[in-house]
Amino acid sequence: MEVRVSMAEQIIIEVIGGLFVVLLLWCATIRYARWRMRTDSNKAYEWLHNNTRDYPGESHRKTTEIAKATGLSEERVCAVCVADERIHRSSKQPDQWSVWRKEPESIYNERGPIIIEVQNDVNG
């Protein structure tokens, strides 16, 4: 038994098939972009976590440092760090990132200011 398909039906079938292929490619592109964002974000987070400490003066790193160490471009580092909730951007120094806190603490918070007392030795 032979099935005859009209020209209009054949065009509709081809259009639907084409749309299905486009939809599949679009979904694959979105999944790939999300996978890349997640892997790059994890790479930046892990590097920051391993190369910073929750200690005044050692909690933040510059975008250029992260880019050089991870092999990502500076633009990509900014994009993945902004997208990752675990990574904090300093509002006072926007090129600095941390996994510990938003703003770097002063080194004086830990040890306090150094006070030098001057003694005047006056003989006589």
Detailed description of the structure:
The chain is mainly α and 124 residues long. The protein has one domain: Arc Repressor Mutant, subunit A (Orthogonal Bundle). It is built from four helices and three strands. Strands 1-3-2 form a three-stranded antiparallel beta sheet. α1 crosses α2, α1 packs across α3 and α2 packs across α3. The protein is rod-shaped and about 125 Å long. The mean pLDDT is 88.
Give a quick set of tags describing it.
54% helix, Arc Repressor Mutant, subunit A, mainly alpha, single chain, 124 residues, 4 helices, rod-shaped
- What percentage of the residues does DSSP assign to strands (E)? 5-15%
Q: Please, how many helices?
A: 4
Shape: rod-shaped
Number of strands: 3
Compressed to H and E, one letter per element, the order equals: HEHHEEH
**Overall pLDDT, averaged?**
88
Q: N- to C-terminal separation?
A: 128 Å
Which fold name is given in CATH as the topology? Arc Repressor Mutant, subunit A
Largest sheet: 3 strands, antiparallel
Rg, please? 29 Å
CATH architecture: Orthogonal Bundle
Class from secondary-structure proportions: mainly alpha
What is the CATH homologous superfamily assignment? Winged helix-like DNA-binding domain superfamily/Winged helix DNA-binding domain
Number of domains: 1
CATH class term:
Mainly Alpha
Side-by-side strand order of the widest sheet: 1-3-2
The level of helicity is 40-55%
Task: Identify low-pLDDT runs.
Answer: none
